[in-house]
Structures are given as structure tokens and as C-alpha cells.
Amino acid sequence: MGNESHDFSPPETWGDPSAEAQQGPSWDNPRWPLVGGESEDEFTQALDPTTMKLAVEQAAAKAGKATDPKAIEEAAGDSIRAMLMVRLYRVRGHLAANLDPLGLSHLDEPEDLTLEWHGFAGQEEKDVYVGGVFGYEWVKVRELYDVLRRTYCGNVGLEYMHITDTDERRFLQDQFESPEDTIQFTDEGKKAILASVIRGEEYENFLGKKYVGTKRFGLDGGESMIPALEAVIKYGGQLGVREIIYGMAHRGRLNVLANVMAKPYKVIFHEFSGGSASPEDVGGSGDVKYHLGTSTDREFDGISVHMSLVPNPSHLEAVDPVVLGKTRAQQAIRDDLAAHAEVLPVLIHGDAAFAGQGVVWESLSFSGINGYNTGGCLHFIINNQIGFTTSPRFARSSPYPSDVAKGVQAPILHVNGDDPEAVTFACKLAIEYRQKFKRDIVIDMWCYRRFGHNEGDEPKFTQPLMYDEIRQHPKVSYLYSDKLLEEGVIESGTAPQLREEFEALLQEEFDAAKSYKANQADWFGGRWAGLSKPADAEGARRNVETALEKKLFDSLGRTLTTVPDDHEIHKTLGRVLKAKAEMFDKGEGFDWATAEALAFGSLVTEGYGVRLSGQDSGRGTFSQRHAVWVDQKTEEKYIPLCQLPHGKFEVYDSPLSEYGVLGFEYGFAMADPKTLVMWEAQFGDFANGAQIMIDQFIASGEAKWLRANGLVMLLPHGYEGQGPEHSSARLERFLQLCANDNIQVCNITTPANYFHVLRRQMHRDFRKPMVIMTPKSLLRHPMAKSSADEFMGEHHFMRIKSDTKDIADDKIKRLVLCSGKVAYDLIEKRDEMGIEDISIVRIEQLYPFPGAPLTTRLKRMKNLEEIVWCQEEPQNNGAWTFVDRLIEKAAADAGKNLRPIYAGREPAASPATGLAKRHVAQQESLISVALDLANVGKSAKVTTSRPKKKG
């Protein structure tokens, strides 16, 4: 596989989805196996037989015993032991590093880092051959030991020897061990670091004085992060970064907003006083200050870098995949997917959360995966050495909070937060590594939390010894200014003057905040230009034009059914494509998958992007989609929709993750409203694993943060007797979240209606998340077909689908309203029984609920006696509790005093039975109730002589 197998970053062709799909066999991962690796490091180079022979000869000659076998053996042994010591410091030196500012973390000195363990006790002045390590050919044992201690056991500890790639390891080693690359800053650089730390400290002090007792999750104790993050901007800009997307914890967020993101202090003070950062007429519920985001541009050395901080909820680390998805989208927009050089994701974590939250690993796992890779993320852990009140020994089993990152072979820099130069150096090295290798890297800054979890807590309840030490521990700026005074970099009045000047600036901004008023919201700029909030009310919204011209329809048909001559597809797929070609020839029988492909292809042809991801999205969980055609001899992949001009089609089989992948796709859709972004669950129930993303971002993100989003969720749903985990997509949970025109919830029954709703999603001048209960059995149901003309002409998405049977309005006595698959069961049974006065109407869009058109229909039914809501789900699930009063209101508006009757399963703790006979009995029962079969034959409802059947 050659040297490419060393490279964890994807091949350049990964920017092209059609090329991405043709990388060879599905089992061939270009990143594995990692050849070379540790066998090529300096340890083995120094012990190369030729090198050792030369070293031994030189050593023996130096001792005047060129032919003495014992002297030769001793020289060889000394060299081997010296190189073993070097290697052990590279692997384990971080365990003896000076990391804890409080000095409370007492780790026993590893025995194998001592001279005694290596057999050099009392031999400190002996010369040993090390073959160029640290620039030495020959070196005294003491000198080698001292340089190893300074390098690997100072205020920065480096973990990197778990990395298999030789080039990456050697780069870190060279940067860490070369004298010119160690922690060195000019006097001006040191003054800038001091000023930045002082800004961070004084900002927290000012907030503490002006807003006593108010939660702010201050950075107190971790202020070294501020100059370090500025270093990422500065050095990143020099290395090609033009945009940084941040996601972060609560702690220090306000400080980062002010001192890194340059959000005006007066705006933050205005928000502290209860004001909003947006105009009053924008609406939305808003959110607390330490959840908010912002965007800005900062310039260092003439290079401007755009930065955005993604808003996030209290759910720890939930923002991580959102940032990565947004980064991927921005890289696509900037044509940066091949190089991954211009857009950088930076995630700032808490120590307990990084170790404890599973979404951290889900996000790390994207780092080398086709379609999700962002070219490396810089992770910065604010290591308080404590969670809310939980000590590390109760919070994790690993020595460090960062250990999970070793799973993707990310290097880890542990650094003492009381040394701002060391923290800044760590970030400088991190951005250099990321830009060179396009890999994740972690900075683990050991610091402390000067106050409790928030400023109102009493931390001594649970950590009295730690907080005794903290209360007498000097602040970072005082320690650092004393150091600079000692070095002669600053004068005695420099630091106090910086504090006074900054406090005066804050006071000016505080005074200005009293009269501050936001004059615009920032949510429809840039790529979102031309989009807006909906202009009309949710109930009166008009459909947009989504039908196709026949020429495009026919052209797409050829694309979807033409197999390249040199591509050998599976014989069953051949039959599928033959059937698909017949649909286009005859103009009828279009199934769900074909309608979907027509929607995708037409959008791509119109210049939109289409991105679909999920655990089996290429083939489809139910072998229905076949978006990717796999050659049966070579496993090369052909994607018909990638052959279309103008736009871009991407389909990815995702990691087995719901939380992380759904968050990633939400982040992608946040950045790019011109791409139809879809996440598909393998089964709808599996969205349970992503409930935090649904509750905190998808359903409420627009109201809280003024961030629109057009993400589509495809959730297979339907009761076919497959048990509790393969039936219900928990429709009721989504409906419970519906309010203020926040999301769209659909349960669609025809391929054409699905086609139109997907196209409507992109052709509207606004974006709302959409949740679709996609079918399983309806994918191939003989009644769930559409004709060609339903995709063309004046056709559009129908929120309400009329009965398949033409029953005169004045003949209808009973109206059965339903949604989804059960409609066809009802229609089949009704028609089998010959019932002529029951109409079955499907509600295709449950929210926003189509109350007005339903009222119009009800007015036409002059002799209506009963309205029934029929559903497959148990009574405490499904749509019943949501639609009950909405149907009643529509009836009242139509002048009818009718309450809907429920027809469905009994209330149940489990979503569905796993017993086939019980499922059939339940299904027959709810159909019977809905159609009132118990009374069939007792009235004029039936026009057949067929005998009455039992319900």
C-alpha cells in the first residue's frame, strides 16, 4: 500500500462524492494497516548493527582498550541503556511532568525514569554514545538525564509515542526536543501574553463586582487559555487558516466571547442586565448568556480570520458534532475539502465532560471517516481537576481525561495552566501539527476553578482541602508578571497599569450598555442571504412550485436506469432497474425509492446540493434505495446521481452513531441552506439515541439562538409486527415538541407526495427542520404508487390526501382521519366490505396542522355524523393526543359539534408487541373500530350481500 497508508487524512479525491465512492473494495480502508511505525524510530536507528559497531569501536578506542572484549561489551551496554532511557522518557516522561498548579496531584515518580533503574547510579559522568539524539553523538549520562527531565518533565508533558505514523511522531519529537522550538517568546510576545491574561482576569473580576451572585461560569484560574487561543488565530492564519469554528463548554464562554471573539463588552453587559442581543421585534425565546454564540473577524499580522462560536445548550459536549458538521459544510463551500487548510474546528471541553460523555468519542471517530472528516480538530480541555463536585477518581477510570483521544491516535499535550507561555506554546505546536498532518490534537490544560461550579456554589462542602489551597494560591497574572519582572522584560508598574487601563475600558462599556439597543439580528447573512423568516402564518402557508418539466423528468429517468457498459451490477439490482425503466416507459407504478431519486436528481440539476447520511443509506435499510451500484467483480461503486450537472449529490453510510451523526448533519445544515441535508435512521426508533440533539437543537435552536435550519430526518415508521424497537419512530415525541412554527412533521403515504415535500424544502424562501415518518412496507406496497403526471404539471405537496374512492360529500356519514400506512389497511378493508358512506382522508402533514383546509372539507360534508381518528400506535403514543383538539376545532369552525372518536391500540408501556398473532389481532381490532364493522349490515352502509364479519 506504500507510504499512503501512513496518512490518516483522506485522499484528495474525497472532496468528490463520485470519486469517494470508487476507492475500491468496501473492506479496504486506506488508513490501515499502518506500516512502518515504531520500528523506524530513533531508538532502533541508534541500535542499528552498523551504527552500534561504530559506536562500540569508538568507545573502546576512547577507553584505550580497542581490542578488549569486556570494554566493547560495556560500551555497547551503556549505549543500549542510554537509548532505552531516552525512549522511556519519550513514552512516559509526561507522568513526571509538573502539571498541577496547586501541587495537590501526587503521582509517584515512575521507577523506570530514574538513573538507578537504568543502571547508571554513580555513573553520572560516564560518556555514552547516543547517535545524534538531542544533537549529541556522545554525552555524559548526567547531561542526558537533565535534558530529558527539562524536555519531558517540565510544565508541558507530551503523549505521542502511541502514534503509529513515523512522520507525525518525528515531527512532534523534533518540535519538542529542538532547542529553537522549545518554549521561547520574544519580550514583545511575553508582554502580549501578560496583557491577554490580565484582560481575562480583570474581565471576570469586573463581572463579579457588577453582577454579584449572577451565574457566569467564570474562567477564574484558567485565564492562560485566552492568549493560547489567540495564538491559534495568529499562527493558524500564518499557516493558511481563514476561518475558525468554535464549540465550547460553559466555563470561560463569556470570557472567550469578549476577549477572543471580540464580542463588544457593552453587548454582554446589556445581556447581563436582562437585554437581548437581537432587536425586540425578532422574537424567539432567547437563552442564558453562557449558551450564546457570535461571529466576528480578527486580524493578526495583516491576516484576517473569520470566527464563529456555535451556541449550545447545557447538555455537555452536545455541540461537538454540530461544530464538526458546520466545519465540513464550510470547507465544502470554500472548496477546501481536499486540503482542509482554510477552515479549522476548535472544541473547548471540560475535563469531566470530555472523559464522561459518549458523544466525545462519537465526534472523535469522525476524524478519519469519508464524508465526515474535517482535516483535524483542535481540542482544548479546561482541566479543573474536578467536575461539578466530583473528584477525578470518581469521574473516570483513566489517568487523564484526555485518554479517550488515544483511540484515534491523537497526540496530547498536558500543560500547567499557571504557565501562560507553556499553554501558548502548546497551542502553537498544536496548530502547526494540525495544519501539517490534518489530524486531531488535544491540549489538556491543568488549572483550577477559583469558585464553585458557578459563582453561587460553596465548593468547600465537598473539596475543603483543594479550596483551602486555591484561596491562598496567587492568580496567574501575578505569577507571570513576577516572572517577567525577574527576567527584566517588564517594569514594576507595568502590570498594575495594564489592570487599571483595562478596568477603565470596561467601565466605559458598562456605562454604554445602559443605552445600547440591538438594531439587527445576524441570522440571515452570508450564505443565508435571500432567506428569511416565513412571511405568512403557518396555517395559511402556500405551496411553492415543485413539479418538473417533462424533459427533465425523462432525462432523470435515463440517468436512473442506465448502467455503464463496464459496470457489472448484482442480478437482483438489474431486475430492479428493469422495473424502474418500465415505470418511465408506461408512466405509472412509481415507487417510493424512484420518487426520492427524482427529487434528489432534480434538485442537483437545479444547482442545489443533496447530502444523505445514515447507517445504511447507500443501499437503504430495506434494500429499496440503491443510490450506489457496486460492481460485483471489483466492488467499484457507481452513483448515478453523481453524474448530473450543476449541483452535488453525496450519500454516506455513517458510523453506527445516532447522537453524533445527527448532530453533525444539523451542523452541516446550519452552515449550508443550499444543500438538502438528510439524516436517515436505520429504524425510526433509533433516533432515541439522539434525543438531546432533537430536543435542544432541532426543535428549539431557532427560538433560542435565532439559527434557522433545514435538516430533514427520515425515520422508518410503521407497524408490521416487527416488535417494539422496529415499529415506532416515536411520532408523539416530535409532535409534543411542536410550537411556534418550529419544525415540520410529516407522515406521507404516496411517492409523489414525498417527492414534492423534499423539493418544497429547498424551494421555499425559509428553512425549518422536517421530520418524516418514512415507510417500510409501503416502499413496495401495490397501492402506494404514483403516476408520472403526479410529478409534473400543476402538482405539488398535499398536506391532506383525499380518499382513493370518489364518494360524494353529501353521502359521507363517517369520516376516518388517519396518517401513514394504516390508511391503506383501512381502504382495503372498507372496499372489501363494500362500505359506501365512510371516507378515509390522510393527514400527510401533522405539523403545522392543516386546520384550515380540513375545515373546508368538513363544511362540504353536510350529512357527517362521526369523525374518527385512526392510528396504529397505542393511545398514549402516536398523534392522537396532538390531533384530538385540533380536529375538534376544525369541526367547530365548520359548524359541526363533533368530537373525534379514537380507534387504535390500547395504552401501552411498550411501543408494539413482538408477538405476530397479537399484532394481527390488534390491527384487525383497530380497523374494525375505525370502520364500525360491528354495525356493518345493520344500516344502509353496506351495498353488498356479503355476510357480516366479526370485528
UniProtKB/TrEMBL annotation:
UniProt feature coiled coil, ranges: none
EC numbers: 1.2.4.2
One MF annotation (Gene Ontology) recorded for this entry: thiamine pyrophosphate binding
Cofactor: thiamine diphosphate
GO cellular component: cytosol; oxoglutarate dehydrogenase complex
GO term, biological process aspect, one: glycolytic process
UniProt domain Transketolase-like pyrimidine-binding: residue ranges: 590-781
Record's keyword terms, sorted: Glycolysis, Oxidoreductase, Thiamine pyrophosphate
SUPFAM superfamilies tied to this protein: Thiamin diphosphate-binding fold (THDP-binding) (SSF52518)
Stored Gene3D superfamilies: 3.40.50.12470, 3.40.50.970, Multifunctional 2-oxoglutarate metabolism enzyme, C-terminal domain, TPP helical domain
Protein's UniProt keywords contain Cell inner membrane: no
Region Disordered, annotated ranges: 1-42
Pfam families per record: E1_dh (PF00676), OxoGdeHyase_C (PF16870), Transket_pyr (PF02779)
Physiological role: E1 component of the 2-oxoglutarate dehydrogenase (OGDH) complex which catalyzes the decarboxylation of 2-oxoglutarate, the first step in the conversion of 2-oxoglutarate to succinyl-CoA and CO(2).
Subunit structure, interactors included: Homodimer. Part of the 2-oxoglutarate dehydrogenase (OGDH) complex composed of E1 (2-oxoglutarate dehydrogenase), E2 (dihydrolipoamide succinyltransferase) and E3 (dihydrolipoamide dehydrogenase); the complex contains multiple copies of the three enzymatic components (E1, E2 and E3).
PANTHER family membership: 2-OXOADIPATE DEHYDROGENASE COMPLEX COMPONENT E1, 2-OXOGLUTARATE DEHYDROGENASE
Protein name stated in the entry: 2-oxoglutarate dehydrogenase E1 component
Organism: Pontixanthobacter aquaemixtae
